[in-house]
Structure formats: C-alpha cells, structure tokens
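Problem: given the chain below (299 residues), write out its structure.
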Amino acid sequence: MVTGERDPVTGQHTTGHEWNGIKELDNRVPRIVLFFLAATTLFAIGYWILMPAWPLGVTYTRGLLGVDQRDTVQRSLQQATVDRAVWTDQFGSLSFGEIRARPDLMKIVDEAGQTLFGDNCAVCHGTDAQGGRGFPDLTAGAWLWGGSPEAIYETLRVGINSTHPDTRFGQMPAFGDGVLQRADISAIVSFIRSSADGIGDIAGVDAERVDEGGRLFTENCAACHGLEGRGNPEVGAPDLMDQSWIHGNDRQVLFETIAKGRQGHMPQWAGRLSDIERRILALYVTELSEGRQSTMVKP
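Solution.
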C-alpha cells in the first residue's frame, strides 16, 4: 500500500502505518522469494498428481506413477533375505577355523556379534565385556570351560547350571559345612594368596600356616583345581593362580567362597538364539578374549 509519502532518509515510499513515530517502508518482496514460492507450489502440485498423497477415507490417491512404498520395502526385505542366505549358509557349513580364515565372514562376525552381544550378554558381562563381581571378564582369556570357539559355542548352547538337559554343571562345595575347620580354611586362603599371580607380598595372617595350607589344598582342592591350582576346564574349575577373579581375591571373599561354596549360573541360549547367531557370538567372544576385536561393544 503506497501512500505517496516518501521516507526522507531512504527515499522509499511508506505504507502510511506509524508506531510511536516509526513509519513502515513499503518494501517489495524480492523476486527470488517469489520465484521459489512459485517453484515449490508447482512441485507440490506435480507431486500430488504423480505420487500417493491425499487420504480418501479408507484409501488414498495412488498417483499417476503408481509408487507403493510397501512394495519397495517388501522388495528390499526379499533382497536382504537373499543376501543373508549367502553368508548364513557359509556360517552353517564351514568350521570355526575356516570362518576365522575368511576376512569377509569375520567382518560379519564383528558387526553382527557386536549387536548380539549388546542385546544378550552385556547385561551380565558389561558393555565392555569385562564383567564384574560375580560375572567373568570375557576379555581376560581366563575360561571355566575352555576358550576355543567350539567350547564357547557349547557353553552358549547349554549354559552352566541352566535348565538345558545337557547343561554344564559346576559347583564349588561348602567346605565350612563340617568338612574343614575355620583355621584350616584360613590356612588354604593363605596358601592361595601366597601362590597366586598379582597379589604381591603377603604378611601377617597371610604368612601364617602357608605350608599347612598347601597340604590342605592338595587334600581338598586339587581334585578339581589341580595340584598347582591352575584349574580344570573339564569340570569348570577356575585357575586360582592367575589374576582373573570372578568374586575377588581378598581374604574375606576367599574365605567365604571356600566356607560357603559358590554356584554360578549361565543361561542356555539354545531356545533364544539360532545356531548361526550362537556361532557368531562364539567367534565374537573369542576375538574379544584374544584382543583382536576392533569394534567392541561400547557403553
């Protein structure tokens, strides 16, 4: 709306509107803005005509091109199924050693294993796979039942002390239940702490009755843990001389473990994960323990 009045500073016409002494200039809309408004309007009209656009109650306008996103998604899913079948067949037919020798298949292990681990294992073993009090560190290379892909796969399949009929069964008996006296249990603790890696120098109560603890260990513990305390994967007995401890290695914890016993639990995954998924997880965890995983699950 041009009034004929011009602004004395800019020389442009004003609209005649005034607010507290300030008058509005009659600035024209730039042509570039009008161009894009026209272009987007024409594009919208063209899209409405060519593509599915307007709802019509129980249906919608189909568009002249007849594009249906459901068909597009269905084709994508069918193609993904075909692509997946290629490598799933290989995972099902090749041995673990043959799979590990194939960089293309190990790339799938790296990617799919990360998701499988995060969805199914991280709740107990941690997002970094390093476990916590009562849950094993899967990156330490310390295994109750063996750390080969085959052994890990079997553990995943049947679990430990699980509901599977073929479950791995392992239990630390309670020696404080009338088997050993408190002083004898304390002596065994002293022996373990004096012999285990990474604990360092011991003194005081730890240094007492170490030799007697060694004798008691041989009589009561070596049947499962071995004469040198290095464990036995045949029965799920842990290595007591390395630096990996599920429950801790201080005197109180070790005393409670020997006196009261332990019985861990690993659920069986045969009913929740497919055979291919368990094979991928077994290989993924193997790579974690060997320090070769490049994209370990992150918090």
